[in-house]
Protein 1
Amino acid sequence: MEERLKVLVAEDETILRKGLILTTDWKALGMVVIAEADNGIDAQELALKLEPDILVTDIAMPGMDGLELIGILSDQLPDCECIIISGHAQFSYAQKALGYGVKGYILKPIDPKELMVVLSKAAKEIYNRKQEREKDLELEQLRELSERFLPTKVSTTKDYRDQYIQKAISVIEQHYAEHLNVADIAEHMGLSERTLSNLFKDRTGYTFLEYLTLYRMRIATSLLQQKERQVGEVALLVGYKDYRYFCKIFKSCFNVTPLEFKKGEL
């Protein structure tokens, strides 16, 4: 169940304020009124404490007018959408309100249909903003996740054994899309399969197959971020002829399918 948007109503005329709160179908809008205030100072205090998603406010109020209130909240609660209800039709008021990013300027007496339209517009803005932020967060998480799966190269030391590891890693980086196994590489180096396997594990912390697989997955994440690349194509490019097996390995590493990764879904 989606959480309702929180609304704060600020209006010094009690009958108008109560009527607006009681007659508006907040539930249908996916909203709930969390507080009300009859002056600008109380409205500011409540807003900073409760952090509403939407503020519905009059302009002329005791203590602090609605425009001043909106100006303060635009700095301290930039995500709060503001809607003005007012008996003032002057262009200067509307112009100043627009400067603060106000989503609606409704003249009294309030037309319920107009209010519903403006509230719906504000809700859409809020949901769109939240979705964009969630997408940005998911993409950042996926980028961080893919970076963690890039095997670290063995550091250069004076140990002569590292030359074999560097050669093996070089083969992986140049030929990861081909059929590779530790036995063939060991034979090419004049080592036994067991010797190279043990040495590789000791110097990198991975088995040869683990390193190869993780390197392929890292390359796959880069390719999947290219819009023109299809998942099946990426599988072949990183050395997997079996599409289903590629998807299985990818999900075991990242806990998402290649397609979910490509769409930015976690």
Note: Residues 95 and 180 are 68 Å apart (CA to CA).
Protein 2
Amino acid sequence: MVAACANRRTRLLAQLPPGAVAVLHTAPEVARNGDSHYPYRYDSAFYYLTGFTEPESALVLVAARGDKPARSILFCRAKNPDREIWDGLRHGPQAARAAFGFDEAYPIEDLDSSLVRLRDHAPSGIDLLPLLAEMRLVKDDVEQATMQRAATISALAHVRAMQHARAGLHEYEIEAELLYEFRRHGAQGQAYPPIVAAGANACVLHYSANNALARDGDLVLIDAGCELDGYASDITRTWPVSGRFTAPQRQLYQLVLAAQGAALDAVVPGRPYAGIHAAALDVLAQGMLDLGLLDQNTCGSAADVIADKRHLQFYMHGTGHWLGLDVHDVGAYRHTGNAQAADQPQPSRALQAGMVLTVEPGIYVRPAPGVPEQYWNTGIRIEDDVLVTATGHTILSAAAPKSVADIEKLMQ
């Protein structure tokens, strides 16, 4: 990790103007209530460049100029034996410099005075975030290995939830099985608040209450992933709490699974990112017509459904997002050049080996006139974490079963 972070700093410094000085602060500690704080989480960009997890820290990068070499300087909390009794280890500047490979390190109290000196005659107005977003979009070997491990832990948690679920449990009881499995395998916590949605709750995209009963006949949609060493995983599985899909549930589920299969086929280096959503949408739109969710006499073909946006009644979100240090990770989805007119959308960026993204089509059927009643109050989403490779892709979350046969076998 130390070598990887040092390499990232070197690459970033090479992109800065000669002599430029750039500053990146980590996230502050945040009070929850009274004198209690939320669990601390460092800033993702700061961690990407440093591997340093203590609050009250800043990184200063000084680009090379003439015969003066580039420098990376850490400012952090000084050693304080009294506070360390209460709060735990502080590296202090000297130990942090040696342990994390910085050129220099000083107490955080010296930051302002140091910047006055460093910025004398240096270019100003350097915004690191766009440069970092592009760097973070392609994961190196260290990141890929961490994300594989995070996805595997989360997949095991989804398996545990399926195995321990039964009708009559509250959603939060099922959630507890997930969180246990995260920590049991060494993940530091959850990458985002888990969604555990039974029955009609699965039609609420960002459902978070997790307090209803799972009843016999319900599908349970779980969208949950752990965070491991700063990196997020993000998996969704949907399964019957009774262990067996009903016929209507199976029809909708197979449709979403087919849509995901089509979307995964589009995850190939060189192809446009937007093609993933387009592939899933083609399958879903045709399925909506075939199952009678939409009236073909009124809506026409699948292409007509998409053009008229009639699919939004049942599928209203995108088919994925970048994944990394943030669960919705940084990086543009379209080219950001000025080749096209300002009023024209930029083309979708091409997929590249080393990118990691989610593929997560779904369908959400609420009661409505003209919608077959056997599908009402059914929400289904299937989401995997996917690494783009030189020849195609690898599904990092493959350890979580998703075929009807595999789910029903596991739950017996």
Note: The longest strand covers residues 71-76.
Protein 3
Amino acid sequence: MPAHFDRPDAGLRLLILLARLTLSEAQRRAALDLCRDIPAWNDLANLAERQFLLPLVYRHLHELAPPTLSPDDAEQLRQRALGLIQRNLLITAEQQRLVAELLEPLDIPYLFFKGPALAARYYDEPAMRSSRDIDLLVPPQRCVELLELAFQRGYRALDPETLTPDRQSLAFAVRTQRVVSLVSPGGVCIEFHHDIDRGAGIYQTDELLEKRVAYRAGNALLYAMPTCELFVYICLHHTRHFWSHLHWLVDLDAIQRHPDFDAAAAHACAERRGLASTVNACMAFYQALAAPEPEHSPHLSRRSRDMLEACLATLQGGQEAELALRRRRPTPEFGFPWQTTAAYRRASRVRRWVGRFQPEYIDYALLPLPSGWQWLYYAIRPCRALTRRGRTLWPGQ
């Protein structure tokens, strides 16, 4: 799946090079060379912030001390980075409060994945890793009581926005959505997942929860995926989004640098999950991005080059470019045809076709029916879809 990208400018090349926890001597020299070509440090800071990378970029630049970075520009970078670090610490505190106030009182098995959980386990300074939300996986049969308690503790609905705290409403939302999002009293988005692979059957929630491991975050003991499982999962997830944010590249770097990482175990896990091609391409992609001009790397396979080209296209084109690539994905779970089989793609098309007839929470919000009558949504949904399509075809009628 070819993707169009322009030759990255010095600012983007510098950020790609700095998207790792530590720099080799060759990378330090290349970074200093690129710093000479930065026309406006404020523009670089804006791009780094959009890529959730600014605190780490500031740390690297502080250590490199490039002559072209004036004291005033350095101070502005520092102040902006401190503001983001404070936000990251707030999210970490909300994660611990979530465990203490909701999960532990209900004795619900859980694990955190991505975001602050990944930062706490694999980053030398966890606050360097910026996060937008907290991702939590819990058993589907425990979701309703967890959401009930969350509403009682002051959480509010985000997705679905019209979610109400009564049990019937929550049960319908859990049945029709794989993730329900609430906003904590501290203003942090919490995504309550009971399925992390969009129903593809790659992961089973009960199995993941049985294999969870404990990790320490401050004074709290929390739970997450084993290292090899998490590594394979982030390769799958970030490839599905075409590596459109550079902090994901730091995640790949941080896990591989950690003492718990075992490349052979990660490959064996990828084989079990049917994701070996994805993980192999990601590791070659990661190696290419360690150089100042990764697009000229002679060692990339066609698959890794597909990944690199899509990454550079999304880094330059933003959300619009990512959405364009998403529309060309072979399935919702995979970004590239080579990640899966023709049989799987056919089965995915069937699932998507069937899914069009499945009720959504909006059906309930428009007409709340008791559980014994909710079968009517299967009849109502096609009518609503036709009405919506008619409004699209004949606006203003």
Note: The chain has one domain: 10-139+194-355.
Protein 4
Amino acid sequence: MCSTGFARSLGFALVPLATCCIVANVLLFFPDGQLNYVQEQHVTQYVWFFMGIGGGGLAMLIPACVFLGMGKCVYSCGTESCAMCGSVIAALIGLAGSGYCFLISGLALLRGPFCFTRLGWLYPFEQDEGRYLFARERWSECIQPNHIVEWNVTLLSILLGLSTLEFLICFLQFISGLVNAVCRPCCYKQEYSLNA
């Protein structure tokens, strides 16, 4: 039962992380808090990949719900190893979702924001390979939306951090579930043969 308690605590940790990923992704659609940029499609292309909403958010609610329901599953299945097999599959979904969120957020951060410059709407740091992140003096190249570089860098960094935490949590449960699903039946068989 110790491993189900551990899984439940991981499930509780995933819920706020998934919620924060969804909020961060939604905020990326509204730079400077304005609606007109998304209506005119003047937002970075990567926000339409829904990395925080889908990958770090909704996909992460699947393992969160499974981990939180571990106690009920053990009660209905009768064995903890059966429940742990389900948690391993859920953890794999979580690993895929958080990995997707991390990958797309990283690509968006490297490409830089889509903004209005002296040459029109474009990605001014696209060929920069992320060096613009350490050259704040260049951020003024983006005239509109106001503070778009800070907005994107902050929110995408938050998504990177949250998806890393989600990945680690799902990886922990994957290892824990795998060990419990494989080892417990073996241990019970050995214990049974010794008693017999």
Note: Confidence is low (pLDDT under 50) at residues 186-196.
